[in-house]
Design brief:
By secondary structure, the protein is α+β, with helices and mostly antiparallel strands. The protein has 3 domains: 31-178, Ubiquitin-like (UB roll), CATH 3.10.20; 187-576, Creatine Kinase, Chain A, domain 2, CATH 3.30.590; 591-718, Four Helix Bundle (Hemerythrin (Met), subunit A) (Up-down Bundle). Helices cover 50% and strands 12% of the residues. The strands form 3 sheets. Strands 10, 11, 12, 13, 14, 15, 16, 17 and 18 form a 9-stranded mixed β-sheet that branches. Strands 1, 2, 3, 6, 7, 8 and 9 form a 7-stranded mixed β-sheet that branches. The relative contact order is 0.11. Bound molecules: adenosine-5'-diphosphate (ADP) and magnesium ion. Magnesium ion binds at residues 215, 342, 468.
Length: 720
């Protein structure tokens, strides 16, 4: 299979020609029921009702929903859609849909129907999706409910089109069973909290939105070679494989010219994304061979996340068409970079002011500092929650290992802003240009404009007018970390405002009070700021001294979801109930256990049935050679004897360690609670993988290449 796959991959012909002219401006949103389509297909009343719901969160009444459904149906049919579905994001990490046809038989004929009921709420029999005990199967009811703030769109397959309606997914009792429901709550919370703060400074602001731009990293592997690697097929990553002689050390892939076949793939993804209104803007080669990145223009956070989920679906579909497989796993290959999903986050007012971008006068700069410092304070107080929100078996390979960024949550703000904050604390507010230390806050914009600081190792970096959460895994649904970040910041802004209002009510001057409250917040949060190399040993030591957490594995990181801090951040702000938090905790623990369990099974099977047979085969060849030399009365070569010994050692060790891993799995399986099981899978099972791999990878290097069955790293990464 290995040699067949190399041949197939080598002989691929480009099926798709990117040569033809495409007008992206014409394609943009052509498959989206957007504002323009709504104006065309809805009555004025219905249109206004939806707009009011999108802009002001007003509920759409039944009668209006009936009109909207009728208009949406006409639009979808005009686009050639035959079916519709509620489109939602259950806690599996992927998107879910269940299609119904528009048409149904009536009086011997077929008629097309789509009612308000079908638009607004459905009850898919989705009892097999994870619910963490929130749903008992005997009352297996889960409801999907329309989210008007994310527009309906048409999903095109090769042979058919489906109207997709973004929805939340909740239980009969209203408990969230998905990522979107809590996200929407956190969006409202942070928007309101930021608006309330704005009122101190900008009277005209009536609302704010959290904005998000998601950079998505991924690998592409040829389909034939992917299929010849059971570990990639079953787990999304290679469990074995010796590092190739050439990896990423030459830095020749990063920003290099994009290979033709890959370019064609990207181009088609961009075309389909444009139709869905996903504003893809950037594409380039990433650091590791076979690794790439794309990024859209930022959008409102809920829409940005829907678009990212949709984009991943699209990329997966189109990869098949181009005979690739796209890998979103955080660490598909050992020894070269893994993939992340940088979440660029900011808050923007309805008047167009980016609250993380300093303005032109002291007033707007104090507003900037208020949002900036409170965000840092929010990160400080909720570091463990943020860490938990990005925890997964696959992201552990980045956060827990020597890989970007580490598990220690800290913020990077750059040397200039560090100076600004120090001066702010020192109360130095002179205007002297020559004295670097004395920075008046009205000079922040100039300072930032030439602030070219970049720190690629920080998990949470300020990059001029936004914070970039870089620790999110490439396969993660960003809703989870963004729910945590929105809520943490909102919670902090609310606390801050309470303090300020109290002091003002007691007779304090508002501006003076804000400054002194900011100083307090900054002082208490300062130890989360770190400007150095986050990968260094020194930082781990220093962070420990500072009392910052460094939680390297998912089961332990997840505990933050049921901590006191989670209650005060999430529960007290109405984002999750205690029960919902516990359910999520259980679901994520189980997810972790299952993933490691599957990896363990695949690894065991690979060693026994793919690695040992060729190794033993080669051993036999060597032994026969030695025997025939002896029989012929010739001297046996020391090379053969050395190889015989070495191969025997590695075969024995690989076999023995695999046997031990199988036993460890049995022990882990016998654990009685989800917690204990996940911990045991981490410490007893997963920790054995590297030892097994060591011996297998040694064998890969010495066993006859012609006998080796699994495509090697050099083939997976470099043949395209
Ligand atoms: P890099 O971090 O690699 O330099 P870019 O500067 O291209 O990347 O920006 C990365 C992402 O940040 C893009 O998706 C961009 O739209 C987004 N972005 C820019 N400004 C904001 C903002 N104010 N809020 C949220 N995202 C933003
Ligand atoms: Mg970036």
């Amino acid at each position: 299979m290995r040699f067949d796959s190399i041949k197939t991959a080598t002989n691929r012909k480009n099926k798709f020609s990117a040569k033809h002219q495409v007008s992206f401006t014409e394609l943009y949103k052509s498959n989206v029921f957007d504002d323009f389509a709504m104006r065309d297909f809805l009555s004025k009343e219905a249109y206004e009702s939806v707009s009011d719901s999108i802009n002001n969160g007003k509920t759409i009444n039944r009668k209006m929903a009936e009109h909207v459904a009728a208009g949406m149906k006409r639009w979808a049919l005009s686009k050639g859609a035959t079916h519709y579905t509620h489109w939602f994001q259950p806690l599996t990490g992927s998107t879910a849909e269940k299609h119904d046809s528009f048409w149904e038989p009536k009086d011997g004929k077929a008629v097309e129907k789509f009612s308000a009921g079908a638009l607004v709420q459905q009850e898919p029999d989705a009892s097999s999706l994870p619910n963490g005990g929130l749903r008992n199967t005997f009352e297996a009811r889960g409801y999907t409910a329309w989210d008007p703030s994310s527009p309906a769109f048409i999903h095109e397959n090769t042979t058919g089109k489906t109207l997709c309606i973004p929805t939340v997914f909740v239980s009969y009792n209203g408990e969230a069973l998905d990522y979107k429901a809590p996200l929407l709550k956190s969006v409202n919370l942070v928007n309101k909290a930021a608006t309330d703060i704005c009122k101190y400074f900008l009277k005209k602001v009536t609302s704010c939105t959290a904005s998000l731009g998601i950079e998505q990293e991924y690998f592409l592997v040829d389909e034939a070679m992917f299929n010849a690697r059971p570990d990639l097929v079953m787990t999304g990553r290679t469990l074995l494989g010796h590092a190739p002689a050439k990896g990423q050390q030459m830095d020749d892939h990063y920003f290099g010219s994009i290979p033709d076949r890959v370019f064609n793939y990207m181009y088609e993804v961009e075309i389909e994304a444009a139709k869905l209104g996903i504003p893809l803007k950037t594409r380039h080669n990433e650091v590791a061979p076979g690794q790439y990145e794309c990024a859209p223009m930022f959008e409102e956070v809920n829409l940005a996340i829907d678009h990212n989920q949709l984009l991943m679906d699209l990329m997966d579909d189109l990869a098949h068409k181009h005979h690739f497989r796209v890998l979103f796993h955080e660490k598909p290959f050992a020894g070269i970079n893994g993939s992340g999903k940088h979440n660029n986050w900011s808050l923007i007012t309805n008047t167009g002011v980016n609250l993380l971008s300093p303005g032109n006068d002291p007033n707007s700069n104090l507003l900037f500092l208020t949002i900036f410092i409170n965000t840092i304070k929010a990160l400080h107080d909720n570091a463990d929650i943020i860490r938990a929100s990005i925890a997964s078996a696959s992201n552990d390979h980045r956060l827990g290992a020597n890989e970007a960024p580490p598990a220690i949550i800290s913020a990077f703000i750059g040397s200039k802003l560090t100076e600004v904050l120090n001066a702010f604390l020192d109360d130095e507010t002179t205007n002297d240009d020559n004295d670097k230390k004395s920075i008046n806050i009205d000079k922040i914009p100039e300072i930032l404009r030439d602030n070219t600081d970049r720190n690629r190792t920080s998990p949470f970096a300020f990059t001029g007018n936004k914070f970039e959460l870089r620790a999110v895994g490439s396969s993660t649904n960003s809703a989870q970390p963004m729910t945590a970040l929105n809520t943490a910041v909102a919670n902090q802004l609310i606390l801050f405002k309470t303090q300020v209002d109290k002091a003002v009510a007691a007779g304090g001057d508002q501006k003076t009070v804000i400054v002194s409250e900011l100083k307090k917040a900054l002082i208490s949060a300062q130890n989360i700021l770190f400007e150095g190399n986050n990968y260094s040993e020194e930082w781990a030591t220093e962070a420990k001294k500072r009392g910052l957490s460094n939680i390297k594995n998912t089961p332990e990181a997840l505990e933050a979801y049921i901590s006191k801090q989670a209650i005060s951040t999430f529960v007290n702000n109405g984002i999750f109930t205690k029960e919902e938090l516990h359910a999520r905790y259980e679901i994520m623990l189980e997810d972790y256990t299952k993933k490691i369990q599957i990896e363990g099974r695949v690894l065991g099977e690979l060693v026994y049935s793919h690695i040992l047979p060729p190794a033993i085969g080669y051993l036999t060849t060597l032994a026969n050679n030695v025997k025939s030399l002896k029989d012929a009365g010739l001297k046996t070569g020391t090379a053969q004897m050395d190889l015989l010994k070495s191969i025997t050692t590695h075969i024995d060790a690989a076999k023995q360690k695999t046997d031990e891993m199988v036993e460890a799995r049995k022990k882990a399986n016998s654990m009685t609670s989800a917690e204990k099981q996940a911990i045991s899978y981490h410490y007893d099972v997963k920790e054995t993988f590297d030892g097994i791999r060591y011996h297998v990878d040694k064998l890969e290097q010495i066993v006859d290449d012609q006998m080796w069955q699994l495509p090697k790293y050099r083939e997976l990464l470099f043949i395209k």
